[in-house]
Amino acid sequence: MKRLLPFFLIAAGFHLPANAIEYRTVDSATVLYDAPSQKGSKLFVIRRDTPVEVVVSLEGWAKVRDADGTLAWVEKKFLVEKRSVIVTAERAEVRQKAEEGAPLIFEAEKNVALDYLETVPGGWIKVHHRDGQTGYVRANQIWGL
Fold first, then answer.
1. pLDDT per 10-residue tile (average), the chain, 145 residues
2. What domains can be seen in the chain, in order of their start residue?
């Protein structure tokens, strides 16, 4: 009977949840709450361009996790699909090419948000700084992928 349980669950219409991680970017500085309501306690203000992981999605609200692992609720209207990442290393080195020996374009300090452009083989991420510079950073120096 135990071997037939998965068959019965599928036949009954039960599905296992997909474990795809969904990231969004905060479009403008906004308040995060401890509950999905403006009547909830205000926890803190999150900065514009901060990436967040969507953990739970309800009508009009999303429970999100930030790079520090903090969970809070935000109104969905402040989240956009544009992807950004945040520097978690003390200083992330952004290089001209996706190579360790490539010339350094700039360094980004911890908590600086960068626009995510694409993932490149070998553990590199192509990013864009709001000042106009584009380059490659190691994936282990950022969060939001």
1. 43 46 94 95 95 94 95 96 95 96 96 96 95 96 94
2. 18-82 (2.30.30.40), 85-143 (2.30.30.40)
